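Before relying on records like the one below, remember that each one covers exactly one chain. Contacts with other chains, cofactors or solvent are not represented anywhere in the record.
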Amino acid sequence: MLPLITRDELAAALEDGTVVLVDTMPAAYYEKEHLPGARNIPGFPYEQAAEFTDEHAPRVLPDKSAAVVVYCANVPCRNSGLVGARLLELGYPDVRKYREGIEDWVAAGLPTESSTPTEGR
């Protein structure tokens, strides 16, 4: 199980620039709305999460020593857990999960971004 990070801790880390944020939703959801500065590694369909992580991680997360936070839609969403676990297997030592996801972020009135299909990937 991945260590967790709270919304307040994540907001502070983003402001300080001390984490790399990874949205694990499918690309279309990421393009529509994601947390500020997030990069995308799709974790759905679940059976392809490891494959997608293997494919995208070298480009999206070139610094394996970076502090990484993964998130998806909400607590029941499994994408972030699958992508985060695979990142650990690939040698990223500092991976945490924002379990409550983008639904919690938006409900708290915090800002989001959208992007074109190739941005952030």
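The mean pLDDT is 94.
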